[in-house]
Design a protein that fits this description.
This protein is of the alpha/beta class. Helix content is 38%, strand content 25%. It has one domain (4-189): Pyruvate-ferredoxin Oxidoreductase, domain 3, CATH 3.40.920. It has a six-stranded mixed sheet with strand order 2-3-1-4-5-6, sandwiched between helices. It is globular. The mean pLDDT is 92.
Length: 191
């Protein structure tokens, strides 16, 4: 991995973004990095936007990632990818789940979910990976494993060995869900 790594994880409350940040943090710590994590919840209990900054390096002073400073964005939902895109550096990597979650204005009928988000992202100067993580999570055994599928995909862009990632899953996920989550992680990793 590079000398420093800045990752922004974005999604909607209830999607498991915080577990994803813990998986990433554990893998980075096990690989010898100093890390700082900052979580921002915007009405997360009601399906609002959630963003987590994860910074890693030899020595990290602040958890905050400035606009244009993220090496990687892990987006659990397309609209959240568009909302936070300005935080990704030019040529940065973005992993976007195709599953849409309607925000409150769409649910109430006050507005419509924007069309063509993925296509607009494809026109930017970024390394774009688009995936249907929900289908992979269902195949692994639970729709709730979308977050771990996405982490498997993210892991492929790092030089952290697979066994370190799997150990992070072992340390982070409750034992009764471990087998399912290891399967979901591997499905994302092998995609």
């Amino acid at each position: 991995m590079k000398k420093e790594l800045n990752v922004i994880i974005v999604g909607v409350g209830g999607q498991g973004t915080l577990l994803a940040s813990r998986l990433l943090g554990n893998a980075l710590i096990s690989s010898g990095y100093d890390i700082k994590v900052s979580e921002v919840h915007g009405m997360s209990q009601r399906g609002g936007s959630v963003v987590t900054y994860v910074r890693a390096g030899k020595e990290v002073a602040s958890p905050i990632i400035e606009r244009g400073g993220a090496d990687i964005m892990l987006a659990f939902e397309p609209l959240e990818a568009a909302r936070w895109l300005s935080y990704l550096k030019k040529g940065g990597r973005i992993i976007v789940n195709t599953g849409k979650i309607d925000p409150m204005p769409v649910i109430t009928g006050a507005s419509e979910y924007p069309e063509g988000i993925i296509e607009k992202l494809a026109g930017k100067n970024i390394d774009l990976t688009v995936t249907d993580a929900l289908s992979l999570a269902k195949e692994a055994g639970s729709v709730k494993a979308v977050n771990v599928v996405l982490m498997g995909i993210l892991a492929t862009g790092t030089d952290i060995p697979l066994e370190v990632w799997e150990q992070s899953v072992n340390e982070t996920v409750p034992e009764r869900f471990l087998e399912l989550n290891l399967k979901a992680f591997r499905m994302g990793y092998e995609q």
